[in-house]
Target: PLP-dependent aminotransferase family protein
Amino acid sequence: MEYRFSSNVERLQSSAVRDILKLTQGKEIISFAGGLPAEELFPLDAVKEATERVFRTGGKNSLQYGLTEGFLPLREQLCQRMARKGMRAEPDEMIMTTGSQQAIDLITRVLMEPGDIVLVENPTYLASLQVFNLSGLRVVPVESDKDGMVISEAERLIKQHKPRLIYVVPTFGNPTGRVWSMERRKGLLELSHRHGVPILEDDPYGDIQFDEQANYSTLFSLDDRTNGGHVLYTSTFSKTVAPALRTGWAIGSRKVISMMAKAKQAADLHSSTLDQQTLDQLLRHFSLDDHIKVIRRAYGERMQQMQQLLASQGWSDVKWEQPKGGMFLWLELPEGLDAEALLRAAVKKNVAFVPGASFYAAEPQRNTARLNFTYTTGERMAAGISRFAEALNEFLARC
Amino acid sequence: MEYRFSSNVERLQSSAVRDILKLTQGKEIISFAGGLPAEELFPLDAVKEATERVFRTGGKNSLQYGLTEGFLPLREQLCQRMARKGMRAEPDEMIMTTGSQQAIDLITRVLMEPGDIVLVENPTYLASLQVFNLSGLRVVPVESDKDGMVISEAERLIKQHKPRLIYVVPTFGNPTGRVWSMERRKGLLELSHRHGVPILEDDPYGDIQFDEQANYSTLFSLDDRTNGGHVLYTSTFSKTVAPALRTGWAIGSRKVISMMAKAKQAADLHSSTLDQQTLDQLLRHFSLDDHIKVIRRAYGERMQQMQQLLASQGWSDVKWEQPKGGMFLWLELPEGLDAEALLRAAVKKNVAFVPGASFYAAEPQRNTARLNFTYTTGERMAAGISRFAEALNEFLARC
Model:
């Protein structure tokens, strides 16, 4: 039969990243496109041991239905971890989700009506744009620079549009890798309080800082949490342990968390409890903090390697800021160059990346590209950058 | 701060079942409320062995991000299982979901707009009502009897309301345990084709039949699938393997499945791949069909035990139909009795069930109750029914 689809899903573009991932599956393509963590660093033995402990200690009960809010012992441990970073929340102010992606979706579903406005950085995480589009929101980008959202612009747009949510990735943004300055962090919080607009702080990469000594305070930790606070915070184990376990969480106002639980009951009852129990055991018997140090060091080195490979090309009009953490390099290509056309040329040379346009809510800057430096390493990274350079050079010669 | 919530989520009632589950957690309450499978029958050793195989054969790659549509080898195996039941679908006509609950949510999100109408059985699965409410649908119940929806009523309401979806649980309905007759199955399909309204066939209990010889054809298998067919079918491993693995699936028109994948990208990227890979290995090295036979026999005996316990009370005005499968007995209590008031009395005696009112989209029949017979067994079941009887008898004496 001829199915009719909801107008929101009709409008929804499939994620360029995932479409490219599909395209490149099984082929001899070197991909800098996905946001894939380094597979060789996954703590496989620790995860394996953790599942064994789950079955040994939990027995058959470990396979039963669980609470919508998530496995309580895991929430208790996570609250302690959060507290060590200055983020104080009780277990009933936390909900476990299928990746932090689901937290973004649930927060959107409980707070927003179709047609409502959300402010975002420019550019911003493309899968959050998909969530907002799926819920029929109007997305308004706020001028942003290397220190974060420009606060005066945010205020102007708050007054103009009366948004119901501000979505930000203040630490190692995706795609830009940028870190907000303390001034901007406090500035946005102040706006949020003054105008009564909640902030969704998405922090998937916060742990992946290259400078062990750096200390980037989350908006959540800076917020005055009397009356539940203005910040809803979400993060995930996908980058620090493994994505397959699909375990993220959100913390915030007790009332919002309980509304999210109601929505989650309808959405999927609860997330995998095998995964949650595994992470609970992992946190008890494995030093996740030591493991995170290993990841930080490795990713920092890979970022340096990619930077050097790019720098050695001697392009005068290809620019990037050195990221302080996260998983991506954000390139500004020569003006007038359309990175989507470049991608088509690159794929013919068996290398892939993500054209920057997908990350803009409006008026994309087309001469931008996101390159992941965590998944592809060593000689393979060098080969990939060399193919990328070949494609770009031909392109530049032709233009 | 004072958060404002979307009107749909404000209206959403928390599931009575899960609220009672929460209330009874850790207490000495015998609960017939939850839809919990028998824990002692979970194939723990097989699941444990399957996870070991996943880590051994998949290595670190088993912890990486996966496809939104789900783990392909599992989809391939599942398509073969479906085919053996006369349900023919290709892997790209199937999507893996976080329980079949998520399939209901995704289908709703891609097919329906707020204000659209969905027809349901009366009574019907309460968590599907929650999904429909969360999406702001209008739910219209169709008169139903022991053979299923009354087709002439369905047709009248289709003409009157122009629904965009018909949601049914034709085999061992929840809460009633009813099985639709072949005539009604074909009747509804015919209506669906004539009026161009898709059917969502929810089949979580289809495998749990007490008569090994019985053969209940799904609507999906009876449908003419030229042009993708009119039936979207969903089922789950929650009742046959274990709920903790949170793995369900949907099959249907390739176009609908691909739209569901787009929505799922936004909703949570993908479901747990550890769970999906575990189930894939389980299907390869464990006879799920033999295991299902064990469950069928055990649940059939438990159903008989509960029936006998109730029958032995000698009530003349407490009625039920003997279920042919599934997990629930559906009681009709004396007229005028409000089962929610009875529940409050019952909980004081440390026994719980679900009042029937929650399962009605409109005008509830309040003198109804759903009792689960799979989770509580033997002397504990006898003690529970005896407490229930005590509460009911006091109630009857007082009324």
